[in-house]
């Protein structure tokens, strides 16, 4: 195999090499490829002893090597595929060719058994230098990149002078020695540090003086008082680690000089175990904040944590043992703590050892996990007693299992008030739940903790009645609460599925029923046809629907028309569902599938990765009926019937647009699909309009959506965490459409709250908002 090199920065050649970014399939993984080259200064001098690392295109580590005296490096046995290279000399890190970040690096394509030569030059540097007054000799200086990641270190001379070569850019400078970390100029916080600009061939001067210091030291012991030797400790100030030390044979340690101030915490660990923070706690949040006074010594002693024990007994109100119940010991510090569990024995007793010191709550659960009680005698975690366990502690938690209450659920017809029989009930409240079924018109759910429950009723699968909406019911211990649930009578739809060409029955064709103006398809679907091609749907609310047929393998999806399939919901057959009756839909005549493929690119022609492409507008539940473009901007959607289909494009940087550049699916440009063939449809997204304003909400976390007013498709979303000052928002949208806006938020300890603009209960009653073809429409929203 012949090969040659080009001596210019970052060029790579190889027999069979595909230039990164070209539209080509990635090489199959295989061993045996070679990557080699020379690393030189900007003047062409070799750089010896530089650290070179090879990564995959996805930044997974592959191998490392050092340059020799001539600046040469070589990797062998690398897998075929995309390769990135990082070069590091004296902490000056760069990605080939001469880039500061991995995201900007070139991906070199390595063929199986091939060789890629990458000659790399170190870009020109500048210098950041200065004098540090009052410091120990040879302390560390680090320049941290601001505009690009970097951490370039050096040391001072005996007289406090220092100098570091860095790439051009902006930097903050930190000085570290013993237990001290100081940022230039005269700051203990990176956020308050000055930012310095370094230019090629220029020296930027940074002088500073040591801040006042004290010292910090202490002793660590085991639980029996003997010394805890050879143990590493870390000194923290806020989230930053500023120093370290190791205990001697007698357990003593010292961080040496520490900058005077407050907010210091100390952690250590033994034999790979969990961190312990002084004094004898497991999380920094619980640790003591030490204050260091200038010129004085601060002492921080501690003893190694000894696990404790929790035990107790669970009895009924009649004194009978509650055997087989779980005792769950849950930490109040879920970020750093641990949870434990035990099971009650035949006498109701339980015990758990190895408990780390901390604050806990204890929950007792029935064997079927349908009822939970928190110590002591509480129905919810928020009301539970906090149990404190100290190092080596032995804590008893006895509790009495309280007699529960019950709910008697009666179901009646929403129109006539007549009893409805044959249904099941589910009640749920946090950790407790219960259920029951009956062939009659009443169901009783027993042994429920006191509290407010969500109640649901589900009729038998043979019933025309619809499942109920959630309603609240309050349960009181030792009492029966009666709840009446009204059920709405729905209807069903029967249909058959056939091969359009042969007329043969088709199995596993499934129906989704949608109403015009109420958005796209959900993630799931209903009942599917049997071997004879027949099926009847579950009960749905009375109304007029269109049916989408989810096709089995070998066929294409379709909206069901009167005499065949279509890709347009407007052209689908109207199916009228009546209460208490089964309607017959037109036959589902399935055709062979085709494919749509294409490239999504920006206005300059560059391919766009991770653009979502779909034939239905999915909502917050997540994508459905869709795909994403790959790194070359290519997408493919298959299993479509041979009809014209609208396509929806959207990404983080662009609003959702239907094919033809509009927000109304019914006005989209249809993309024709050919049975057994592939249609190419390329697309360039654009941002033309937006909805903007301010949101006033009773809680910090909220979300708003914009739905096309004609189709009900979700066309935009905005979350509170993206908002500016005062709740300012701007939601990009396809221009020249009318939308309806909803909002939602979660109440603390309560259900979610949802509403529609303007003061409407649902999308049908919501006010339309006109989005201009170009520019922004202003709309302020008050939630709640």
From TrEMBL:
GO terms for biological process: carbohydrate metabolic process. One of its GO terms (molecular function) is alpha-amylase activity. It is an enzyme of class 3 (hydrolase). Residues 1-24 form the signal peptide. It catalyses: Endohydrolysis of (1->4)-alpha-D-glucosidic linkages in polysaccharides containing three or more (1->4)-alpha-linked D-glucose units. Its EC number is 3.2.1.1. Keywords: Signal. This is alpha-amylase.
């Amino acid at each position: 195999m012949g090969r040659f090199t080009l001596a210019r920065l970052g060029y790579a050649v190889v027999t069979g090499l595909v230039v990164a970014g070209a539209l080509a399939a990635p090489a199959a993984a295989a061993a045996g490829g070679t990557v080699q080259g020379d690393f030189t200064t900007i003047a062409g001098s070799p750089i010896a002893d530089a650290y070179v690392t090879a990564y995959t295109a996805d930044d997974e580590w592959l191998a490392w090597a050092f340059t020799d005296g001539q600046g040469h490096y070589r990797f062998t046995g690398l897998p075929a595929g995309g390769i990135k290279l990082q070069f590091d000399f004296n902490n000056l890190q760069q990605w080939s060719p001469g880039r500061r970040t991995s995201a900007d690096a070139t991906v070199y394509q390595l063929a199986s058994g091939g060789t890629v030569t990458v000659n790399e030059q170190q870009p020109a540097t500048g210098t950041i230098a200065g004098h540090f007054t009052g410091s120990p000799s040879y302390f560390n200086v680090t320049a941290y990149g601001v505009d690009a990641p970097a951490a370039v270190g050096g040391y001072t001379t005996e007289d406090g002078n220092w100098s570091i070569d860095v790439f051009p850019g902006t930097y903050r400078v930190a000085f570290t020695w013993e237990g001290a970390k100081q940022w230039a100029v005269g700051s203990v916080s990176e956020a308050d540090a000055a930012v310095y600009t370094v230019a090629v061939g220029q020296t930027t001067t940074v002088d500073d003086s040591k801040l006042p210091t004290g010292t910090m030291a202490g002793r660590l012991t085991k639980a029996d008082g003997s010394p805890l030797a050879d143990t590493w400790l870390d000194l923290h100030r806020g989230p930053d680690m500023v120093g370290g030390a190791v205990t001697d044979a007698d357990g003593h340690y010292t961080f040496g000089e520490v900058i005077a101030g407050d907010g210091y915490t100390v952690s250590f660990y033994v034999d790979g175990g969990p961190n312990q923070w002084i004094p004898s706690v497991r999380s920094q949040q619980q640790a003591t904040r030490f204050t260091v006074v200038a010129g004085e010594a601060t002492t921080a002693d501690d003893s190694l944590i000894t696990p404790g024990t929790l035990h107790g007994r669970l009895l009924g109100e009649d004194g009978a043992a509650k055997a087989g119940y779980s005792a769950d010991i849950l930490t109040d510090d879920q970020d750093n703590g641990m949870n434990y569990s035990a099971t009650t024995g035949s006498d109701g007793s339980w015990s758990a050892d190895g408990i780390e010191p901390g604050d806990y709550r204890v929950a007792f659960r029935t064997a079927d996990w349908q009822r939970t009680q928190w110590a002591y005698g509480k129905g919810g975690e928020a009301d539970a007693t906090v149990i404190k366990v100290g190092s080596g502690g032995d804590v008893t938690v006895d509790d009495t299992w309280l007699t529960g209450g019950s709910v008697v659920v009666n179901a009646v017809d929403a129109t006539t008030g007549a009893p409805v029989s044959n249904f099941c009930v589910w009640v749920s409240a946090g950790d407790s739940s219960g259920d029951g079924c009956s062939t009659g018109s009443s169901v009783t759910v027993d042994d429920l903790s006191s509290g407010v429950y969500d109640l649901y009723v589900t009729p038998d699968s043979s019933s025309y009645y619809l499942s109920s909406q959630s309603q609240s019911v309050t349960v009181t211990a030792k009492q029966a609460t009666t709840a009446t649930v009204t059920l709405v009578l729905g209807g069903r739809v029967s249909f058959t599925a056939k091969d359009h060409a042969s007329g043969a029955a088709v199995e596993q064709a499934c129906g989704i029923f949608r109403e015009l103006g109420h958005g796209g398809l959900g993630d799931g679907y209903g009942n599917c046809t049997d071997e004879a091609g027949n099926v009847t749907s579950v009960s749905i609310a009375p109304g007029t629907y269109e049916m989408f047929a989810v096709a089995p393998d070998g066929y294409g999806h379709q909206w069901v028309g009167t005499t065949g399939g279509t890709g347009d919901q407007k052209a689908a057959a109207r199916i009228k569902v009546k209460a208490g009756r089964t309607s017959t839909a037109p036959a589902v005549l399935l055709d062979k599938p085709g494919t749509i493929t294409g490239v999504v690119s920006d206005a300059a022609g560059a391919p766009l990765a991770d653009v979502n492409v779909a034939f239905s507008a999915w909502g917050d539940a997540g994508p459905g009926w869709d795909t994403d473009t790959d790194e070359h901007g290519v997408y493919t959607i298959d299993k479509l019937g041979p009809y014209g289909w609208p396509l929806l494009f959207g990404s983080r940087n662009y609003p959702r647009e239907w094919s033809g550049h509009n927000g109304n699916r019914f006005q989209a440009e249809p993309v024709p699909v050919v049975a057994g063939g592939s249609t190419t449809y390329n697309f360039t997204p654009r941002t033309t309009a937006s909805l903007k304003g301010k949101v006033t909400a009773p809680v910090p976390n909220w979300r708003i959506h914009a739905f096309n007013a004609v189709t009900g498709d979700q066309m935009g979303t905005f979350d509170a965490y993206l908002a500016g000052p005062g709740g300012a928002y701007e939601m990009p949208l396809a221009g020249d459409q009318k939308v309806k806006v909803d909002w939602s938020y979660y109440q603390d300890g309560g259900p979610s709250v949802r509403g529609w603009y303007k003061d409407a209960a649902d999308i049908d009653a919501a006010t339309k908002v006109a989005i201009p073809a170009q520019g922004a429409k202003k709309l302020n929203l008050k939630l709640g």
